[in-house]
Amino acid sequence: MIIASPLLKTDALCAGYGRSQVLSGVCLQAPRAGAIAILGRNGAGKTTLLKTIAGELVPMSGEILFDERRMNEQPAEVRARSGIGYVPQEDAVFAGLSVRENLQLGATRQTDKSGIDEILVVFPKLGARLGQVAGTLSGGERKMLAIGRALLGRPRLLMLDEPTEGVWIGVIEEIAEQLEKLAATMSVILVEQHLALALRVASHAYVMDRGRIALHGPAQQVRDDPALLRYLSP
Length: 234
Ligand SMILES: Nc1ncnc2c1ncn2[C@@H]1O[C@H](COP(=O)(O)OP(=O)(O)OP(=O)(O)O)[C@@H](O)[C@H]1O
Ligand SMILES: [Mg+2]
Hints:
Distance between the termini: 27 Å
Shape: globular
Structural class: alpha/beta
CATH topology of the domain at 8-92 and 157-232: Rossmann fold
Bound molecules: adenosine-5'-triphosphate, magnesium ion
Largest sheet: 6 strands, mixed
Number of helices: 9
Oligomer: single chain
């Protein structure tokens, strides 16, 4: 995918853990509005890619450009303040704090009351649970809280690592609808195992295989590509 002015661009990105390289030459672009999906079997490098963009891992080589600004050397907090929102695959909420406290921590300003109200419109289920300790939420409610918390940072790019993992099927639909709405006005990167959902929400898809982009293109085209199942099968 070539976009005239992408919000995020990675160029030949290589990264990993210590001396163990996971990502090799990852080139990816995310538009200023709309969602892209990142697919791939377990261990393909999807989480590693999001961590590298968010600033939890330092690239070995290549470049991360966010709004044309090089981010390679910027700490995670600077990237977050610049507008890179990240909902990690695990431990995305403070289990010992209430729903309200979790949302307050996500707000860029302590007094961002209107922001919290907006999140309760997006995810009404959270409204009834403001005083509840986050550790006792259901899997779906916890994912909604994590997304809400990230949205309160007012990101321009929202990266979601498997937002429907461990979520009951009825709630998956609710999350998917909200992601579609969010993608209408902001940039979304969706790592998702649920293929149909990912290709419905996203206009473009990237399929990873052993740390590389093996296949990419418009979501429809990727869905119909005979190679897709090979890359997704264990
Ligand atoms: N902290 C770490 N230290 C060393 N290697 C790691 C670490 N985290 C992940 N890896 C390795 O990096 C590779 C890619 O892992 P990653 O978590 O990015 O995959 P993934 O595509 O997100 O998989 P999943 O679908 O299971 O979440 C795997 O081989 C994994 O074992
Ligand atoms: Mg992962």
